[in-house]
Amino acid sequence: MLTNRRRKGKYQYTLPSPDSYPYQWLWDSCFHAIILTHYNTEDAKKELLSLVAKQFTNGMIPHMNYWQESKKKNFPKIDWGEKDSSSITQPPMLAYAVWQIYQKDQDLEFLSNLYGYMKLFYNYLLKERDPREHHITGIINPDESGEDNSPRFDIPLDLPPKQTIKQNYQKRLELISKNHECNFDAPYCMKNFFWVKDVPFNSILVENLKLLSLIAAKLNFDKESEYYHHQALLIKHAMRKLMLDDGIFWSTYGKNYKKIKVKTWAIFSPLFAKVATDQEAKRLIKNYFLNPDEFYLPFILPTTSKSDPAFDPKGFWRGPIWMATNWIVFKGLKNYDFHAEAEYLLDCSLKLLEKSGFREQFNPFTGKGYGARNFTWGGLIVDMLAS
Ligand code: GLC
């Protein structure tokens, strides 16, 4: 974490990987803050203060802040609309990270400093990302999910389950040029080019709204606290109404919420926000988590099920294990008292780090590491060990 730290003026942030990722990323910085709460809450606060520094006036927080120009030749130069940040967002883990910091040091002043940014951000998501007021939020580009080439987005991008990284990248570039056409205006972009409601994004939002409600209560904003709690419940109910089929939550696309029945780790993400019932959770664990034909491979948890036609153990988000998704599923398992399964997931995560180091992703059959090196997400193990 210290090696990856960078400073710009009064701002301080952490690169996910100095060799591969030269900027500050939204959900990465939330994970960094969560990791840093175990070492130094002041550094955790600084990470988030620099994250919110480039918030848009409409409340959106960019998924990338370009504090310094990248000298990396291998980092794709994508025009995301702005000069010093992108114009899309990422899974809204901010309130979670802020709340965890507050749990450590009870610093009300920090809560109060961050509250205005959070209020704007979550209000933006609740309004601009849900123009039909159906209580479910949309994303305008796969990159907003944090899972760039996940097979959940193949149908909306008109891609086959078996594809090359290049083909996927090409389609995402085409979508970015459409995002430009509509000036990154979310309601228009969603309706016309990429009408997707993603399960993890909404699960993460539900959990974060619950915590934002607790934060508002701490600051004596009782009405707002009630409002955010209520919004969390509304999204939970909408997810159950629009995404659930035979006990499984599926991401949807299009006007009428067509379900994208592609089996990825996302089916476990509702556990993170207690959106599933105990019965649903039990079935999910038995039929999918503990099933060697689905997700229970020699190393867990693959991001795509072995039985899915899109599964590729070397395919970035199409099979390999990522530490942040392991952390989210770990928290979800704990919520439902699946302690043995959570311990096993933790054990596997530790083994992967011991075997292959702090890599970006890991092969679920061999544990071999892929992608970026000195990648920060492995640090989430510290938070899992402390849970
Ligand atoms: C990759 C990941 C994304 C992450 C970024 C920086 O694009 O897919 O989730 O935020 O790298 O680590």
Walkthrough of the structure:
By secondary structure, the protein is mainly alpha-helical. The chain has helices at residues 26-36, 41-52, 94-105, 108-128, 154-157, 165-181, 186-192, 199-218, 222-242, 278-289, 323-335, 339-356, 380-386; strands at 5-8, 11-14, 24-25, 64-65, 196-197, 244-245, 248-249, 252-253, 258-259, 361-362, 369-370. The chain has a three-stranded antiparallel sheet with strand order 5-8-9. The protein has a two-stranded antiparallel sheet with strand order 1-2. Helix 3 (94-105) packs parallel to helix 8, helix 11 runs antiparallel to helix 12 and helix 11 runs parallel beside helix 13. The radius of gyration is 19 Å and the shape is globular. The two termini are 20 Å apart. The site of alpha-D-glucopyranose (GLC) has 8 residues, from helix 1. Alpha-D-glucopyranose binds at residues 16, 21, 25, 27-28, 146-148.
Kindly provide the radius of gyration, computed on alpha-carbon positions and rounded to a whole number of angstroms. Answer: 19 Å
The rounded distance between the terminal residues' Cα atoms is 20 Å
Order of helices and strands: EEEHHEHHHHHEHHEEEEHHHEEH
Low-confidence stretches: none
State the secondary-structure class.
mainly alpha
Name the beta content range.
5-15%
Report the total helices. Answer: 13
Form type: globular
* Overall pLDDT confidence: 97
Kindly list the characteristics that best describe this protein.
387 residues; 3-stranded antiparallel β-sheet; 13 helices; 11 strands
Give the SSE map:
Elements: E1 5-8, E2 11-14, E3 24-25, H1 26-36, H2 41-52, E4 64-65, H3 94-105, H4 108-128, H5 154-157, H6 165-181, H7 186-192, E5 196-197, H8 199-218, H9 222-242, E6 244-245, E7 248-249, E8 252-253, E9 258-259, H10 278-289, H11 323-335, H12 339-356, E10 361-362, E11 369-370, H13 380-386
Antiparallel strand pairs: 1-2, 3-4, 5-8, 6-7, 8-9, 10-11
Helix pairs in contact: 1-2, 1-3, 1-13, 2-3, 3-4, 3-8, 4-8, 8-9, 11-12, 11-13
Bound molecules: alpha-D-glucopyranose.
